[in-house]
């Protein structure tokens, strides 16, 4: 294609379309992606954590009481003593303090120091979502505040590592929602909302082609594998943090065998480093579970392996009564277990 000097006589040129300098917000139907985004965006914030080694960024969202919920690994990115700033959607910036954190579930609650007038998000029910449901992720990928991406719920009950510091052993996995909505570094802590704009998860990790560390903020792009903490679990953790400053986690009282790959989670047949496979007097012991038993289901949800069992128990509340299906000597049985706490 060659552009030539047309015989335009020096007059004005129009390529069509509207006149264009209008920057006002366009109204969209409330049930459209744009409509949902317009309602949710004012409640989403960018988080900056400044420390000696530099600045770490992430996302959070406002909940009742003016608190901001985000990921633990966002606020711990400054070494635990960084200066935290919250940048609201109207660009107002306030310092914030950490109300409390739970590395094992990768949840943190921040308290802004000062007044803001932006609304809290509506919390939904992650137990009511299904594979294929449309979702919207909002965050600050690479510092680009207020970025909106869409996708679907790709899978439920995915056992993924949280990447939280100080969360070794059975506290290092969570029962996550998998989504193909594009999630990139900086999205962590932002809301995953349903088609009505209700929060159903907290974006926490992406699987990348560059490494296996799902919980960290790697500088690699999304490949359509994002994970979010179900809001029902995160809400319970956040409410405990706000009420008491700490969190109690559910315990089954067994040591699952990480090497067992024949379906289900086998309780270790022998003690490990002096620790009993079934904690004496613990929930599993009281229910009659024994070393070598293979747990195949929790409340009729199949258990794939040890990490799957850990993630399932992690998602429950202390005191919750669950049905445990297990195999012993080739025979399947079920018992009710009331979960304890750490």
UniProtKB/TrEMBL annotation:
- Which Pfam families does the UniProt entry name for this protein? PDZ_2, Trypsin_2
Q: Which GO terms describe its molecular function?
A: serine-type endopeptidase activity
- Ranges of Gly residues composition bias in the record: 7-22
Is Cell membrane found in the keyword set? no
Q: Does the keyword Iron-sulfur apply?
A: no
Task: Provide the PDZ domain boundaries.
Answer: 278-330
Region: Disordered, residue numbers: 1-30, 267-295, 322-342
Which keywords appear in this protein's UniProt record, sorted alphabetically? Answer: Hydrolase, Protease
GO biological processes? proteolysis
Similarity remark: Belongs to the peptidase S1C family.
User: Which named protein is this?
Assistant: PDZ domain-containing protein
What species does this protein belong to?
A: Actinomadura darangshiensis
